[in-house]
């Protein structure tokens, strides 16, 4: 049933656009009740987000052998999801809905963002274990450095994002994360922040 709901949501976004999409349309075409949809998703925006951008389970982080390689693999995965026409339609609506709905915002933080930050935590742990980082850094900061920059490029600045830019974003995030780890783990105990 989950697959059918998400597949139908993607089809309808392609056909009518996100703004014209309704939960009723999805329920009718998928052959499910609206209650079944609302048991899974708190809103149309959440349902569309899962269908087009971000399932709640992400593949495990790649272990390419370097922090830069791991971050590049991750940003390429997210770019493939975030750059679709459906995601470009959805992102502004979702941001608006999150701003006006604290319950949805909390759910979004506790599910999707927590999953993404767990992926960053895994990448950081691998880099620390390899000796690339002086110690761990806050996964939320790593998330902001890489995926926050990608989201800004795609949704706010409307920049043409190609693989060269993705490589540059991974390089900048690698440098930032490395600098944070060095600063946080070489400073006196009283000066450490964000670890």
In short:
It is built from 9 helices and no strands. With 195 residues, the protein is mainly alpha-helical. The protein has 2 domains: 40 residues, Orthogonal Bundle (Arc Repressor Mutant, subunit A); 136 residues, Tetracycline Repressor, domain 2, CATH 1.10.357.
Topology:
Layout: H1 2-16, H2 23-30, H3 34-40, H4 44-52, H5 67-82, H6 85-100, H7 102-130, H8 139-156, H9 163-186
Helix pairs in contact: 1-2, 1-4, 4-6, 5-8, 5-9, 6-7, 7-8, 8-9
Return the CATH class of the largest domain: Mainly Alpha
Number of domains: 2
> Major sheet: size, sense and barrel closure?
none
CATH topology of the largest domain: Tetracycline Repressor, domain 2
Question: What keywords describe this structure?
Answer:
single chain; 195 residues; mainly alpha; 2 domains; 9 helices
Protein described:
This protein has 195 residues and is mostly helical. The chain folds into two domains: 1-40, Arc Repressor Mutant, subunit A, CATH 1.10.10.60; 56-191, Tetracycline Repressor, domain 2 (Orthogonal Bundle), CATH 1.10.357. Helix content is 73%, strand content 0%. It has nine helices and no strands. The protein is elongated, with a radius of gyration of 19 Å. It starts with a helix and ends in a 9-residue tail after the last helix. The model has no long low-confidence stretch (mean pLDDT 87).
